[in-house]
Amino acid sequence: MNAAVIRKAFFRSIPVMSGYIVLGMGFGILLRNAGYGVLWAFAMSLTIYAGSMQFVGVSLISGAAGLLTTALTTLMVNARHLFYGISMIGRYRDAGKYKPYLIFALTDETYSLLCDGIVPAEDPNLYRFLVSLFDQIYWILGSVLGSLLGTVLPFSTEGIEFSMTALFIASLTDQWRKKGSRIPALAGLGCTALCLLVFGKEKFLIPSMLLITTVLTLPRRRKGAEA
């Protein structure tokens, strides 16, 4: 394996390292507090590997959610990856043996590292594979550390489940400050508030995601029809 490509991929992934280890630890602690040990943390981060969905998944498994609810929630929470995948079709077309893992490991942060198309001329597919692999290793490491530390932390971990919510709020704030369209953010807030009032805090998640998807999709369809 090309040492230069490994080195470039590692240094490229460093910005994700700190975030994934910290957030992964939050997930591991939350999972431990729900009664699931380190093997659960490792297995979920290895096979599911979807940060926001793993945080939601803790509530689903601890609350004995049904299969349909789990499937719909997973689809809604991770639906954005469909758009990521579409934009990466050209880059992954000739990935060969790396393609299945590249598709599986395309998280928000990995996408941000690979979507610009800046890759080494030598073995670009290996480079993309390694960036994706390093990112998942960081997440698994954080999850396992969090699960282990959750048993010995000398302070209360109450509120740790808010860490992923805080991340999304920070992302929303950053996007709001930019001079782009604020319609998606306002639509998301409005639809969520409406569904919270109508369905209550226990059942508003899936209806709000469906409504947000519908509201944001209709204008695009109209523009396409007019064109």
Compact summary:
The chain has 227 residues and is mostly helical. The chain is built from twelve helices and no strands. Helix 8 runs antiparallel to helix 9.
Q: Can you put this structure into words, describing what you see?
A:
This protein has 227 residues and is an all-alpha fold. The protein has helices spanning 3-33, 38-47, 51-62, 67-77, 80-87, 89-92, 99-104, 108-114, 124-149, 163-177, 183-199, 205-226. It has a domain at 3-155. It is 74% helix and 0% strand. The longest helix is centred in the N-terminal third of the chain and has 31 residues, at 3-33. It is globular. The N and C termini lie far apart (49 Å). The model has no long low-confidence stretch (mean pLDDT 81).
Write a concise keyword list for the protein shown above.
mainly alpha, globular, about 230 residues, 12 helices
